[in-house]
Design goal:
4-stranded mixed β-sheet, alpha+beta, elongated, about 350 residues
Length: about 350
């Protein structure tokens, strides 16, 4: 049995039928926020990816975003407002980001091949990377244009500016409510959610600036509002890029504790050691795990399939890792292994 690799793809799970764990088996780790919050269908089918499950929501938000972009561009030129134009530019990046996310989710649903064993699922992560970069670029453009305008007396029509900003704020609020339920399951949906949230705050800043200009005539407030919008964009771009880099570097998923995972695997009767334990994210909503599991000599008389079933049931039930690859090794073979992860 040494060196035999067992690959589990989420079909016919024992834990879905109610697998009974031994008394020594640790309870399921507490999820953040006190709620488990995940299903157990994290196979490699395209519809199970985080973005794919929320594709219709992204389409609706995309239509709303494009409509408000055109409204704000027209309003910005009528009002001669940099702040409103900055908000419109941000809306355009949102629309492009959501478009990229939708295209990526369709590509991610394509079947795997012998040359691409995970299909094109990682395209979703690359789309989120592009989204973050776009956010950073628009932030820089806003700041540069704002600096260029300083020291010049640019008259701004507060009325059209206010109307366009209010329309944008209402539309952003609607989009935010649409995306709220999916932003915890997908990097791309989260990226779109954060962008819309920033747009909402940006529209509020433009509304405040328009009201001040309307009553005081202080046109410099328009430039200050544009800087405020840039300050809203920058942290969100950094946060999104940081999460994307974690996935691309195949870091351990944030919701997975490898020490707890090892503790659970070791609690299965017959298991004496676990090494070469790795966990990573393929794409949003799809984690993968691999490990070498050492079986003691007495357990070799027991059906290896029973041990393997319990190990997979444990991972699926407690850690939502239905795509896992486990190599069972008899104790006498462990000295031939070179652990890459203690």
């Amino acid at each position: 049995m040494s060196g035999e690799t067992h690959d589990h793809h989420g079909h016919d799970h024992d834990h879905e039928r109610g697998h009974a764990f031994g008394e020594a088996h640790p309870p399921r780790p507490a999820a953040e926020g006190g709620d488990h919050g995940h299903g157990h269908s994290h196979g490699l089918e395209g519809h199970s990816t985080g973005t794919g499950k929320h594709r219709k929501k992204l389409v609706i938000v995309l239509c709303i975003t494009f409509a408000i972009f055109f409204v704000q561009v027209i309003g910005a030129f009528i009002a001669n407002s940099l702040a409103l134009l900055a908000d419109a530019g941000h809306m355009l990046t949102d629309a492009l980001g959501v478009t990229i996310a939708l295209i990526a989710s369709l590509l991610a649903a394509l079947p795997a091949t012998s040359k691409r064993t995970f299909g094109l699922m990682r395209v979703e992560v690359l789309a989120a990377l592009a989204n973050g970069i776009i956010l950073g670029v628009i932030c820089v453009v806003i700041v540069v244009e704002g600096i260029r305008r300083f020291g010049t007396e640019v008259e701004v029509a507060a009325g059209p500016m206010l109307i366009a900003a209010i329309i944008g704020a209402v539309a952003n609020l609607v989009s935010l409510l649409i995306l709220q339920s999916g932003q915890k399951e997908s990097l791309n949906v989260r990226g779109a959610y954060l962008e819309v949230l920033g747009d909402l705050l940006g529209s509020v800043a433009v509304i405040i600036a328009a009201i001040i200009i309307l009553f005081t005539g202080w046109y410099i407030v328009d430039q200050l509002a544009s800087f405020a919008i840039a300050l809203l964009i920058a942290p969100r771009a950094y946060s999104l890029l940081k999460d994307v880099v974690r996935v691309l570097l195949e870091a351990t998923p944030k919701d997975v504790d490898l020490d707890q995972t090892r503790e659970h695997l070791l609690s299965v009767p017959g298991v004496t050691d676990v090494h070469d334990l790795h966990a990573w994210t393929i794409t949003s909503g799809v984690n993968a795990l691999s490990a070498h599991v050492v079986i003691d000599e007495t357990a070799e008389q027991r059906d290896y399939h029973e041990i393997l079933d319990e190990l997979h049931a444990c991972l699926g039930e407690h850690f939502d890792s239905d795509h896992s690859t486990l190599q069972l090794e008899p104790a006498k073979h462990v000295h031939h292994e070179h652990a890459l992860h203690a």
